[in-house]
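Aim 2, interim progress. The first record below pairs a target sequence with its structure tokens.
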Amino acid sequence: MFITPEPLEIIYALALFLWILFVTHFVCRRLYDALMRRGFRHNVTVYLNRKIIHILTGGLAAVLVPVLFKSFAVIAVLVAVLAIGNYIPHHLGKIWYWYQVEENMYEVHFIIMWGLIMGLGFLMKNLTMAVLPILFMSVGDGVTGLVRNLIYQKRTKSWWGNFAMALFCVPIGFLSLGYTGAVAGTVASIVEKIEIGRIDDNITVPLVSFILIWTLPAAGFPATP
């Protein structure tokens, strides 16, 4: 899990880091400015940017990890840098207004859970178990937010968004892990609607789906028809 990374892995991690910075600090900032000039509300634009970041950074990185990395060590460093980097603006009271909000630090939760689930995948030597829950959190929840934003023009919980999430999560879950993946995708799409205090869907979606993917086969749940 924490074997010494190969030189190429360090280059790949730096490339991912630069890509994430490009999306969050160039693409999304310019998109924010463009949409604000067109009369979009601040909160709508921020929420849209957050979901774009979900998909283009968290989702893309998750898909690339099994292809590019053999060790979790360099990924752990990347996750730590990103989590601390996104926490500092909140701590200083100078948030990156085009995608962060003062009332919560859910983007930090996203980064930490991404790293935790991916680390568990490396530990258990089964990256599919990690990548799938992360895709539910990043792409599935990203689709949910985009749909809700288009319909309601604000951050809200609606079953329309969960239905859109299920349209992604259930098929990708089935294609990856059969019935186990489909059940995990279904439950993740429902759990996304539930928030308990500061425990948001960036925590519940990947955690619950990972537990299901881990435990259902051990309980004898059939993987295929």
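The second target in this work package is listed in the same format:
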Amino acid sequence: MADAVRAIVSSPAPGAPRTEHDWSTFLAAELRVPVGVVYTRSRKTPVAVRTLREPRGALEVRLHKLFADAPPEVPSALASWVRSGRRAPRACAHLDAYIAEILRRAPPSAARRALVPRGDHHDLDRMARELLSSELAAEFPASTGHPHIGWGRRAPSRTRRSLRLGSYDSDGHIVRIHPVLDQPAVPDWFVRYVVFHELLHAVFPVERGADDRWIHHGRAFRRRERAYADHRRALAWERAHLNALIRSARTGTPLAMPKETRREARAHEPQAAAPRTSGVLRVLQQLLFPDR
């Protein structure tokens, strides 16, 4: 990546397949700033651009891997779009047409790993069914298909500052929940809120704003989310325990059971029946405590 970001050389021959490095050097020459290009398989965001901190002014451009076969007009169109956005309508038209072609050539994969909704401590399928029959009944009527749901892969995380608790894949119509939430220290109602949040993404798809940025949580999404009964309670729990969740995801160490969660668990435990008092003991009690 460092070599690709710093390289500024001539572009490859028109029409030739382009590697990440070829794209990096072409865009760097066109934009006059260091550019690093990374190929992805994302259908949701086949093109994404962000500014890097180092070197100053450098850009990272993430492209769907099929940009390697882009026709001659696409590289210039991409450079114009990165430079001017929607102020370059002709370039946008070329780019939009090629992205549409990419999506036709790269349909969603039919071979997907089977989702497992029932975890060791929380049942995602039960939560989803409850939500689809109550809070989200209007958004997902019985006549329409609803997202499939399951736990994500159980693998050590390298994250230290943030944690994505769930995701929605619009291609496969799939909701995945981070397995770090499948432990007894995480309240059932909090996992249910995360499921609700991800199901909302199927109702309010990602959209492009006026500044060409992708908006994942628009006004309608936020308004609908705030109407959820446990919204504020869930956000407060997340703020209080996010660092512990990050550590747990990174190290595999279970969360310590918070006091409030232990109280909730005890409240749902069946109460043990009071031991029977034997006849002899009752007589002794009456002699010792005649007023009882």
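The first strand starts at residue 35 and ends at 40. This observation will shape the mutagenesis plan for the next reporting period.
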